[in-house]
Amino acid sequence: MNTSATTASANHTPLVDTALFPEGGDGEVRAAHRLYEHLVGIWAPGVVEAAQDLGAFAALTEGPATAAQLSERLGTDLRATRVLLDGLHAYDVLGRARGEDGQPVYSLPPEMHGVFAPGGLYSLAGKITHDRNVAWDAWRNLAENVRSGARTSGGAQQLNQISEEDYTALVRGINFWAPPITQVLAEGLRAHGWTSGADRRMIDVGCGTGIYSQLLLNEFPELRARGLDVERIVPIAQEQAKRLGVADRFRTEICDFWNDDWGNDSSLALFVNIFHLQTPESAHELLLKTSKSLAEDGVIAIADHIVDEDEDGSTQNKFSRLFAASMLATGGGDAFTVQDYDQWLADAGLRRIALLDAPMHRVLLAGHA
Amino acid sequence: MNTSATTASANHTPLVDTALFPEGGDGEVRAAHRLYEHLVGIWAPGVVEAAQDLGAFAALTEGPATAAQLSERLGTDLRATRVLLDGLHAYDVLGRARGEDGQPVYSLPPEMHGVFAPGGLYSLAGKITHDRNVAWDAWRNLAENVRSGARTSGGAQQLNQISEEDYTALVRGINFWAPPITQVLAEGLRAHGWTSGADRRMIDVGCGTGIYSQLLLNEFPELRARGLDVERIVPIAQEQAKRLGVADRFRTEICDFWNDDWGNDSSLALFVNIFHLQTPESAHELLLKTSKSLAEDGVIAIADHIVDEDEDGSTQNKFSRLFAASMLATGGGDAFTVQDYDQWLADAGLRRIALLDAPMHRVLLAGHA
C-alpha cells in the first residue's frame, strides 16, 4: 500500500494531519484514518451539490455575502446556511474573510464563476445535474451491479442509465477536460512531424460539443474539421463552434458511425472518449473503418482513459480504473489497456506512434503500419 | 483559493496530475478540474462499501485472490468484480500483483484486516453500516436541511437520525480516532505537571466504548477511571476494558449526566465528542457541573472538533467545519470555536490551560480559574 505523501494533485483537501501521528504508531490506526478519509469523500459532492441546488453559487457570483445575507436571499435557515458555507470554505471552494463587524463574508473566487454557471464553456453544471439524477443511487447500489454484471435478465449489457436529456447536460459538463488534452495532442502531433496545411482535413468521430476539434482549429489555423455525431448533439457543436470563432472551419455531420461513409482523405481522425464505450469487437471494427478513411500520412488520435499496465501507480491508471467503476455503476463501458489498443491497431493494419499523458487521460497516436 | 500542493495528508488518491497542466493555463479550467475531483469524492465510499457489502474484504482477509476466484466465491459477475477490485486498487485499498499466469492477484494489506472486520478494535465496519443506512440519503438531500434548518415543523431541532442500533455500531466504528488523540492528551497532561498517583481518579463523561480512558489507563498505571454512559452502551465499555486489560481500574456507571451526582474528587474529567452535541446553554451547564466535580488541581480535557479562528487553514478547522455539515445532514450538533469554549469556561470559574492539535481534532485542557 502506498502511504507516502503525494504532491501530484493540489486539488485535495486533507482532513487528517498525518504529520501528527505518533512515530512508529499502529499501522491499523493509520489505515483506519486513511479509510475514513475515503469514506467521507461523500461529503464533498454533498455540500457542493446542495449549494448549487439552493442557488448559493449563483448568488455569490454577484458578489461576496454574509451567511445572514445569503440565508435571506435564498430563503434558507441562518445557522444551517453558515454551516454549509463553512463546509464549502473547508474545501477551498469559497473564500472566507472577516467583515468589519466580525461576521464572516463568503466569496466565490472569479475562476469558479463559470464552473457553476449553466452556460459556462467549462461549466460543471451539467455534470452536477447528471450526478443529482443518476450518480447517488447508482453508487449507493454498486454492489448490485457487481453481482449482476449490470446485465439485464436476458444477458444483454445494461442500458446506459443516462437519459437523453442528462446526456445533453453531461456532454457540455465535461468540456473542461479538453484544454490540457488538446494541448498534449497538439504538441504530440507537432513532435511527430504532423503538419497542418490548407488541404488538411480532420474528422472528430462522436464529437459531442466539438470542443477538442474547435480548440485544435485554434492551434492549427489552416486545418478544417468535420464533427460527426447524432442529430440531437450536432446543434450544440455548431453553436459552440460559433462561440469559439471557428464556425467557418468546423462542419457538423449527422452520422451513423457504423453505416455512413467517412471519406478517405482524413489527415487526422480524432476519437475522444469513444473507445471506452466499445466492446473489443466494435473497437476492432471502428479501427478498420478508420484505417480506410485515413490519408497515407494521416494520424489517428485517441483520447480516453487508457490503462498502461507498465505504469501501475500513475494518476492516469487510477482515474481510468475508477472511471470504469463509475461506468459499472451508471452504465457505459470499460477501461482498456494500451496492450488492448496495440492488438486492435495491429489487426487493422495500424501501429501506435505515441502514448502521451494528460492530467487525467492518455492520448494515443497511431498511423498506418 | 489555496491551489498550492499540500503534503499534510498522505491519505488521498489524486485523480488529476496537476503537474501536467499547461504553464499559465486558464484558471477556470484548473478550477473545474479541482471541483470535478471534489464531485467524484462519492466514488470512494461507493467502491469500498460495495466491496464490504459483497464480503470481498472478508474473503481477502483469508488470502490474496484473482478476480475469477473472488467472483466464484462471492457469486458475482467476473468482469464487474475485476472492475471493482481495480477501483479498490486505484485507491490503494488493495494491492495488485501479476500472478504467474499474468492474471492480477489482489491482496488486502495486513493493516487493513481489522479495519473491515466487525469485531476489530479499530474497525470501521460500524461506520460503514451507519453510512449505508443513513449517510447517502442524508447527504443527497442536504439542501432540504439547509432550507429548514433541520428543525421539525414545531421548531425543535431535528431528532438525530441515528437509530439506537446504528449508534451502537457507530460508537465502535470511531475507536480509531482514540490512539493519536490519547497520545496528545497524555503528553499534554505531563507537560502541564499533571501527575498520576494511587489516589488519582478520572471520570469519562459519555464514555462510549471507553477507549480513551482505557488507553489512558495504559499510559498511567496507577490511575483509575469511571466511565459514565447510558444503559445500552456500558456493557460495550466493560467488555472492551477487559479486552484491553484494564478492567480492574475501569468502572462503568449508568448515569444521567444532568441529574446524577459525579462526585467531587476527579483529577481528570474527560469529554470526548460530547461538547459538539451541546447548545451554548447546555455546554455552560455541563461545565458548571464539571467544575463542582473537579479536585482543586484537577484537569478538564475536552477532545472534540474545535474551530480555532486564528488557524483558519488548519486541517483541524477543515475537519471541524465539515463534521458540522455532516451533523447538519444526519443530525447531531455543531462545531464550536475555542472562543466559545473560553467564554463558557470563564462563566463556570474555569480557565483554559492548553489547546493541542490531534490529527483531526483538538484537545482543550482546562482547570479551576
UniProtKB/TrEMBL annotation, chains A, B:
Give the Gene Ontology MF terms in alphabetical order: O-methyltransferase activity; protein dimerization activity
Cited InterPro entries: COMT-like, COMT_C, COMT_dimerisation, SAM-dependent_MTases_sf, WH-like_DNA-bd_sf, WH_DNA-bd_sf
Q: Which CDD domains match?
A: AdoMet_MTases (cd02440)
Q: Cite the O-methyltransferase C-terminal domain residue spans from the record.
A: 200-350
Q: Which residues form the O-methyltransferase dimerisation domain?
A: 37-108
Q: Which domain of life is it from?
A: Bacteria
Any one of the GO BP annotations: methylation
**Keywords noted in UniProt:** Methyltransferase, S-adenosyl-L-methionine, Transferase
Query: What protein am I looking at?
Result: Methyltransferase
**Protein species of origin:** Streptomyces oceani
